[in-house]
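Hey, can you fold this one?
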Amino acid sequence: MWFGAVTCLLSLVTLGDAAAKPKLMERAESVKIYAYGTGIAGLPVNLGADGKAYISKPSDNVTSITWDIDPTGSLPWNLTSTDNSTLAASSFYIITESGAFEPAGFVDTNSTLPSGAATTGFITYGPYVMYLSGNTYVSEFWAKTTNTTGLWTLMWNQDGTDEADSEPITLKTTAPITD
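Sure. Predicted structure:
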């Protein structure tokens, strides 16, 4: 009888441990990442000429990109541009210093990262893009309005505080449903 109770408890511990682990997708190439939020219904993340990440429909202002992603957080997420941009095969980064509210961007292997930048730690939790900070999964991606209608700068808001002309968004590997 005591053996049955121990076996039952061990089963519950194992079940609880399995439930706590996120479902990570396999390493993937040519993935598109989409932003969702108020007024942003599944717009793709694109590359600006300044090396920053922008949310918009493809246009003359940005370059459409796909990503090669390692959903475990161990390796950088690299972009693949749809043109022969000088930033093709660059790594995605965010600024993770305390108090940072900075644009996310891309840096090539021959360039220096901005101070406080992280290029690893990005994971997918199902279709959701998150950042692994220590043992915590966080998603502090924000969209900041620009002077161009329909174009937002992709920001990382380390502390998650309210910022002017900005709103929190969700990044996903799932394309929006179209009619």
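The helical segments are 2-20. Let me know if you want another pass with a different chain boundary.
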